[in-house]
Design a protein that fits this description.
Layout lengths: L3 E8 L10 H19 L3 E6 H10 L4 H19 L3 E6 L7 E2 L4 E2 L12 H19 L5 E4 L11 H6 L4 E2 L7 E2 L6 E2 L9 E3 L12 E3 L4 E4 L1 H13 L17 H9 L2 E4 L10 H7 L8 E6 L6 H13 L4 E2 L8
Parallel strand pairs: 1-2, 1-14, 1-15, 2-3, 3-6, 6-7, 7-11
Antiparallel strand pairs: 4-5, 8-9, 10-11, 12-13
């Protein structure tokens, strides 16, 4: 049976002290990836951090360079849309509290989750961010991915998403959990299915629900993998160096210790060394009927020459994959 393949990228900067630039975190890695995808007819689904675009537009009134950066991103999004790629909504609301000092972004992640805002603010953010994307790609925005996987509690978000015409989510992954107080989520107990409907809680299937969940594919990872990944990053040279020129926001120490000492669940990803897991994850991805949706995530900022080559090899081996975007899903 033909496997449906979704490649969804979170199109965003880094969120630590060093955010990196749009040129190196977004534009160049997407162009490098397209050079591979075009050979196989694979289309991207971009979850665009629209809050960053809005902040760029507003700060451009004082900093002309940011205006040029905004136009460069907008041009890439329009070009991708014209080529049949998909652009959907990704929300990192901390951009509401960030500013540009003339040389760098001043990042404030105290309100990292959308649920950290009032109901009225959530409604405004969802509407403004979706409107920003629609200005570039038209009225085809209906899917959502929560920033940092922080979709819980969903009942705080449901009214705003419903009112904005957002009805599809792709945030969950099997056995995903984060105990970080800033970026908490817990997906244990979610349905073991490739697609389901829900209403107020994405972990609870509801055949009459207004929303559809298309979870990101997941893979079990042993601690040795993360030890090897750390070693490759340190000693692997240019092949394992990210395209992005920023640095990740650090989680609490316990998060890294758990990865290095205990088995965990990870999204199936084309980021860095994780791309080596594509093959094993694909072979295990089945639902109860034998139909497969292989929903893979990535971040342009975290791609490396190695991970792009791994994806190239994977696609060459699996010509049976049917590339789809969220626009192709009818529920």
């Amino acid at each position: 049976m033909t496997a449906k393949f979704i490649l969804g990228l979170d199109y965003e900067l880094f969120f630590g002290e060093k955010t990196g630039s749009a040129e190196h975190c977004l534009i160049r890695p997407v162009d490098a990836l397209l050079a591979v995808l075009d050979r196989y007819g694979v289309k991207l689904s971009l979850f665009v951090d629209a809050g960053f675009l809005l902040r760029l537009r507003r700060e451009a009134q004082r900093h002309a360079g940011l205006g040029r950066e905004y136009e460069r991103i907008a041009r890439q999004l329009r070009e991708l849309k014209a080529l049949g790629h998909d652009v959907q909504l990704h929300i990192h609301p901390h951009w509401e509290d960030c500013s540009f000092d003339g040389g760098k972004w001043r990042i404030d992640t105290a309100r990292y989750r959308l649920q950290d805002f009032s109901d009225a603010e959530i409604g405004r953010i969802v509407n403004e961010y979706k409107a920003e994307l629609m200005e570039h790609v038209g009225d085809t925005v209906f899917a959502y991915r929560a920033g940092g996987w922080c979709i819980q509690p969903f009942d705080r978000l449901a009214p705003a998403l419903r009112a904005a015409g957002i009805w599809l989510d792709s945030t969950l992954y099997q056995n995903g959990i984060s105990r970080d107080t800033l970026r908490w989520f817990d997906f244990r107990g979610m349905p073991a299915k490739p697609v389901w409907r829900f209403s107020q809680d994405p972990l609870v299937e509801d055949a009459a629900g207004d929303f559809v969940e298309v979870p990101i594919s997941a893979v079990a990872v042993m601690p040795m993998f993360f030890w090897k990944m750390a070693l490759q990053k340190k000693l692997g040279g240019a092949a394992h160096r990210s395209f992005g020129d920023g640095a990740a926001m650090q989680a609490d120490r316990g998060y890294y210790l758990r990865l290095l000492l205990s088995p965990s669940s990870s999204v199936v990803s084309i980021d860095g060394s994780k791309a080596a897991l594509l093959e094993s994850a694909y072979r295990r991805r089945r639902d109860g009927t034998g139909e497969r949706i292989f929903n893979v995530i990535g971040h342009p900022k975290s791609l490396t020459p190695h991970s792009v080559r791994e994806l190239d090899r994977f696609l060459a081996r699996h010509r049976e994959l049917e590339s789809i975007t969220f626009q192709d899903l009818k529920y």
